[in-house]
Design brief:
Distance between the termini: 68 Å
Strand content: under 5%
Largest sheet: 3 strands, antiparallel
CATH class of the largest domain: Mainly Alpha
Number of domains: 2
CATH topology of the largest domain: hpI Integrase, Chain A
Number of helices: 13
């Protein structure tokens, strides 16, 4: 059975181009499902009832979104086994995804982003870097994984673009603001050029103090620390800057298709959440300012 899981892993990575984090999640979920079935059961002989039992079991401690991810991974696995002529029917086929409550993303105002940057300590060497990181994420709407993997060879400042390696190793070119270019160049000149850089990180743009690539966790820590110093009582993460980028573009007249391309969303329906966010803001404005609202 482990051989099929290994083949499935290669299939997702090489043929489907699935992102590394997604692949690891699918394999983790498969392992948990194997444990749930027990040593005397096989993944190949699974029935729909087994899948339903597992989802009921994990629903005690996992949110609907995580349950949906598990079903997606299992669906891919059994579809793969059908392709390999190992089984004839997919036991996940008729199982409905759990209903999810769509939460509107947390967004910062332009003033709040300015406040976030205003508390950066520029007397420390990482201050200039952190300022450039925030400017780049907000200017380009990057995912945290896209930011930490951004390379010097991805910068096309003369043309006003950066090349981004997104989900599924898909490349896209995103416009970058002149303010972000200025701060990146300042970081490269004042900080990065004077560092002892690890050989494997020579082309990586943003580095830690030891000259190695930054981790996702470090970006989270930077933002959480700055948010606390700034007195911002919102649940801020790297994705907050990405949401703010998209929301502010929409509020200022950008069309949804352009935002989709810049964010690297495969489907326009993913981008449409920002329409709901915009409508929510309009509703709040009416409730706050309309003279008849308090009648």
């Amino acid at each position: 059975m482990d051989n099929y899981i290994e083949q499935f892993s290669y299939y997702l990575k090489l043929e489907r181009g699935v992102a590394e984090n997604t692949l690891l999640s699918y394999l983790y979920d498969l392992d948990k499902f194997k444990q749930f079935l027990g040593t005397n059961s096989s993944l190949i002989n699974v029935q729909e009832a087994d899948i339903r039992g597992f989802i009921h079991f994990v629903s005690e401690y996992l949110a609907p979104a995580s349950q949906a991810r598990i079903l997606s991974g299992l669906n891919h696995f059994y579809s793969f086994l059908i392709l390999q002529n190992v089984i004839e029917n997919n036991p996940v086929m008729f199982i409905e995804l759990p209903k999810q409550i769509k939460k509107l993303p947390v967004v910062l105002s332009v003033e709040e982003i300015d406040t976030l940057q205003s508390v950066i300590d520029f007397t420390k060497t990482e201050g200039i870097r952190n300022d450039a990181i925030i400017e780049t994420m907000y200017s380009c709407g990057l995912r945290v994984s896209e930011l930490i993997n951004l390379k010097l060879s991805d910068l096309f400042f003369d043309e006003g673009f950066i090349r981004v390696l997104g989900k599924g190793s898909k490349q896209r070119f995103v416009p970058i603001a002149s303010s972000a270019i200025k701060k990146i160049n300042c970081y490269r000149t004042e900080i990065r050029s004077k560092m002892n850089i690890k050989k494997e990180a020579e082309d990586i743009l943003f580095l830690n103090r030891r000259g190695a690539q930054l981790t996702r966790a470090m970006i989270f820590t930077i933002l959480k620390t700055l948010a606390k110093l700034a007195g911002l009582h919102k649940n801020i993460s790297p994705h907050t800057l990405r949401h703010s980028f998209a929301t502010h573009l929409l509020e200022n007249g950008a069309d949804l298709r352009s935002i989709q391309l810049m964010l690297g969303h495969e489907s326009i329906t993913t981008t449409e959440i920002y329409l709901h966010l915009d409508k929510q803001k309009l509703k709040q404005e009416v409730e706050k300012y309309h003279p008849w609202n308090n009648r």
